[in-house]
Amino acid sequence: MKLFKSIILCGLGLATVSLSSCDDMLTKSERSKFELSQDFWNNANQVASYSNVMYEQYSGYGTGGGAGWFYFKSLSDDQVNPSFDNWMFTSVPGTSSYWSTPYTEIRRCNYMITGLENSTLSDADKKYYLAVGRLNRAWQYYQLVRMYGDVQWLDEVILDADDDNDLIYGTRTDRDVVMDKVLDDLDYAIANLGSGGKNSWSSDMARAMKSDICLYEGTYCKYRTQADNNKAPDSSRAERYLKECQSASEDLIYGGNYELTEFYGEVYNSLDLSSNKEVIFFRNYVKDLQMHSTVDYTASSSQQRGISKDAFDAFLFRDGKPYATTSCDKTDHPVLDDGHYSIHDALAERDGRLSVLLDPYLCFKGYGWQRSGSMMMTSSTGYNIAKYDNTDMEVDYRINTSKNYTDAPIFWLAVVYLNYAEAKAELGTLTQEDLDETINKLQTRAYLPGMTLTPDADPYNNMGVSNLLWEIRRCRRCELMTDNWYRYWDLVRWHQLDLLDTSKHPNIMRGAYLKDVVNLDSSFTLDDQGYVIAVSTARTYDKKYYLNPIPSSQITLSNGATTQNPGW
Q: Looking at the domain that runs over 1-55+100-193, which CATH code has it been given?
């Protein structure tokens, strides 16, 4: 079992590599100085240390004061950043870490894969570390393809930048070809990683990654268009990848190694996920050694990126029906309770996940409140996000930057349930038994009735899909709200990115009902119904935003061989 340490050290013979730090092991400036010492690749400890650096790419809750994958990735219809989230890019950048960082990691993987070819390690160890390299190469290429579409595929060592310009700065490889290679890498990893702990490389971790990636690829290929994505839909390719998602998910769902936790919030705010039965792979944090700031940003004086009214209204009522058709009390107006504006009654009528996600009190400029007991909080929308906080941590460790030590889930069973149900629904093979084994377990945990194959129509369904797919997508949105940037990439793969246009969908910039608030601060603007307009800046959709712009320096260095994405 190769477990990751809380603090990953370079150490153990890396003198064969010219480097300034572990995190900068393979920058462009160092690439030509790298020497593939065979002695290095013959040493199991050195190879293990080298491969452990790849763990740092699974950001989780981030490190130190830096932002991680959860809460901070707020470009969606779920959250409203008080500083406003525009598109990832609105003009072509000269350089971008979104482009350079994955390629740095891909080079790291290729060095290891090539170095192991003639290694004297045992066959079992060589296959294991080859699997680690290929798994992480797949992960990085998945990030690149989602953002840029066609990208250069590299599967060999780049030793000298001048001699390999045709590889580094050459023609971009068709994104479908790249993703097929990603699938090959994933299958190799699944076949060769074997069992492991919840924070080590393992076949189950690779299966969970495959479940995510193949659902993305299958639905993206089904819904993409030539006009908007520069690639026509491909139904046979979509079917192939959705079946691959189904297969990987089934191994995890029916393998007997994982089950849902009893309470929704346990995955997000635990001090130790090593024994959590729902978690497949997680990022470990340790008090006073390696910590993060995600809890601090949701439990202290910084104005939160609260959820939107659109997101709030996405949650079903306890009768299992949406806002338009429920017979439950739909009132969402706050009630003054001991000096605080409470939405406790409104939360009690809704999906149980909402009362874990949010505080029971609205908090905004002029009316903050103290969940931690020492720091006053406010939110851009009035709705304050609570699910990452853990009150068992000492207050000082909750409300200070770089002092949080809750573990972060990376892959977990609830996501696999969602992937499986959606893939089978897209394939037209979903059964009631499938729903009962996946989505309805999430529904039960959220205090909601089970879903059927023929749910009632929701008048708000604006995605042009069946009632069943709409409800599966709703469940996914509510289960994963503010997590890991899932919502943004879900909208991309469903070809629904235009839902982020604020002029057409104003509720994605609205917040809580504040009309009846006494002495409301004059800085707030309310709409005609009394809901706060959290941000008035406009975000306008353009089809070019489906793909990021290629950095101009990449195009310049390639002498035009690397082309720009459409519209940029």
A: 1.25.40.890
